[in-house]
Amino acid sequence: MTYSLWIIITGVLVGITCGMTGALLVLRKMSMLADAISHTVLLGIVGAFLVTHSLNGVPMLVGAATVGILTALMVQLLDSSGVQSDAAIGVVFTSLFALGVVLISFIGDSVHLDVEHALMGEIAFVPWDTWTWNGVNLGPTAVWLLGFVFILNLTIILLFYKEFKISTFDPQLAISIGVPVVAIHYVLMSMVSFSTVASFDSVGAILVVAMLIVPGATSYLLTDSFGGMIALSALIGALSSLLGYTFALFVDVSISGAMATATGLLFTLAFFLSPKHGMLAKWYRRKQMQKQQLNA
């Protein structure tokens, strides 16, 4: 495959993987927790490297999942102790992310990981970091890792589709019929952590946050179907990657930044043009109601 095609595949996989997971977060009103986890997983990545001296996929996924669950637990603990939920997220987010930044200083120059790399990533370098097996070049490592996490997340959603649905819309009913709501919650946190760490090296935390939140928010404006929202969010994430890469190619700007900007553009279009929830549709319905009242 060509250099550009690998970048496009990576961006699309990030959009799909984060998009379908982010739709669940948006429905559960947990979008800012995704922001926190996408930053605090830096601590998990650094911790995994300090223990294993490797940035291979499995140690990173384990470290990220551990810190992701730890983030959710700490936020829940502070929230239940009387701290406002947004303040709890802010305290945990900044503390764990800062600890990860501090620990990076112990790594030094032994690995290509720093704060700027963690925040911004560099998707243009993805085609050069390849996975070789028995002397055969199998393509970029990031693509394989993202592909694995995509299949894992999709499998979890399909296996626990009913549990996710009922615990999202009516957690009390879910508890009463025996759905393990707490376990489902932490499974979702693990999915967010996996998605983040798989995307981290390629695109950085900034695009991960955009892909986790904005496609889900956009699809929320376009459909009232639970399954449809998950699918549409993944599609919007993929489309944002394609539009962002095309724009970055012609204007010569940051690829990750352009992809994140594309998510905002698609959200803006949905915000105004959505057939049911868009501003223009609401304005039209309001005018129609006023006209009916005048004619009554």
UniProtKB/TrEMBL annotation:
Taxonomy, superkingdom: Bacteria
Keyword list, A-Z: Cell membrane, Membrane, Transmembrane, Transmembrane helix, Transport
Keyword Phosphoprotein: no
Membrane topology, as annotated: Multi-pass membrane protein
Database matches in Pfam families: ABC-3
Subcellular location: Cell membrane
InterPro entries named among the record's database cross-references: ABC_BtuC-like, ABC_TroCD
Keyword Transferase: no
Transmembrane segment boundaries: 6-26, 33-51, 57-75, 87-107, 141-161, 173-197, 203-222, 229-248, 254-273
Signal peptide: none
Family: Belongs to the ABC-3 integral membrane protein family.
Protein name per UniProt: Manganese transport system membrane protein MntD
Gene from which this protein is expressed: mntD
